[in-house]
UniProtKB/TrEMBL annotation:
Catalyzes the condensation of (S)-aspartate-beta-semialdehyde [(S)-ASA] and pyruvate to 4-hydroxy-tetrahydrodipicolinate (HTPA). Belongs to the DapA family. This is 4-hydroxy-tetrahydrodipicolinate synthase. Pathway: Amino-acid biosynthesis; L-lysine biosynthesis via DAP pathway; (S)-tetrahydrodipicolinate from L-aspartate: step 3/4. HAMAP family: DapA (MF_00418). It comes from Marinobacter xestospongiae.
Length: 291
């Protein structure tokens, strides 16, 4: 079982939007050196929405090769087309991903039965461990706990990234799927509370810029150390808020550029962080001790 801090890794880019492979290698090494427990490749934060299928798979393969078995790699392979999700998941499995992260289909708003059939079809088509991803604020489609409970009976559906930010609902889900499915937070602002309630890790945007502190927070929270969890959560809270002043990954890519780890490249329709937010993000980086 994968536990701890799972960074939702950005995809570094040149000014023209092409992928910056050298910066990507450096980021992988940066995370391994700073205690990150796993890398989520080409998820929302990795700009999956604007990478074409060839780039998508190439990036996953590049990260897997660079990691070289040092920590797990979870490949983002979700789509609002079941057929496309199966194709991406198949390719990630061939490339050697330890697991695949599959977002709830977006825009087309399937029913709960449609969600069940979608994820079941992918799981039956590709024999790789799979993690569901519910983020209704992004997808305009909310997968109910009851649907997750049904999916928990499928052997290779092993986890869910819960980005609802709803702690009572998340706690109910943890209890309902105990022993069948591992729950992870997907919301930095509420991750500490969900892990104290029994979640086994956090798929984190904040970990991009503060990997050591986020790894330590996850360890403390999973162990039930409330005092240390509270201390680290207070340290990271400014980042948890300010990295969402504009749509993710706009602020976190700017923050990483400010830290000198990547350039400012990002793909349209996303643009570089508005200058009016620069001081707020910089203050949060300073407060966390990473700048």
């Amino acid at each position: 079982m994968i536990t701890g801090s799972l960074v939702a890794l950005v995809t570094p880019m040149h000014p023209d939007g092409s992928i910056h492979w050298e910066h990507l290698d450096a980021l992988v090494d940066f995370h391994i050196a700073n205690g990150t427990d796993g890398i989520v490749a080409v998820g929302t934060t990795g700009e999956s929405a604007t990478l074409d299928p060839e780039e998508h798979c190439q990036t996953i393969g590049h990260i897997i090769k660079r990691v070289n078995g040092r920590i797990p790699v979870i490949a983002g392979t979700g789509a609002n087309s079941t057929r496309e999700a199966i194709e991406l998941t198949t390719e990630a499995h061939k490339l050697g991903a330890d697991a695949c992260l599959l977002v709830v289909p977006y825009y087309n708003k399937p029913s709960q039965e449609g969600l069940y059939q979608h994820f079941r079809a992918i799981a039956e088509a590709v024999p790789v461990n799979q993690m569901l991803y519910n983020v209704p604020g992004r997808t305009a489609c909310d997968m109910m706990n009851e649907t997750v409970e049904r999916l928990a009976d499928i052997p290779n559906i092993v986890g869910i990234k819960d980005a609802t930010g709803n702690i009572p609902r998340g706690a109910e889900l943890i209890e309902a799927v105990k022993g069948r499915l591992t729950v992870y937070s997907g919301d930095d602002a509420t991750a500490a509370d969900l892990m104290l309630a029994g979640a086994k890790g956090n798929v984190s945007v904040t970990a991009n810029v503060a990997p050591r502190a986020m790894a330590d927070l996850c360890k403390a929270a999973i162990a039930g150390d409330r005092d240390e969890t509270a201390r680290l959560n207070d340290l990271l809270n400014p980042l948890n808020r300010k990295l969402f002043l504009e749509a993710n990954p706009i602020p976190v890519k700017w923050a990483l550029a400010r830290m000198g780890l990547i350039g400012e490249g990002i793909r349209l329709p996303l643009t570089v962080l508005d200058q009016k937010f620069h001081s707020e993000v910089e203050d949060a980086l300073n407060a966390a001790g990473v700048l």
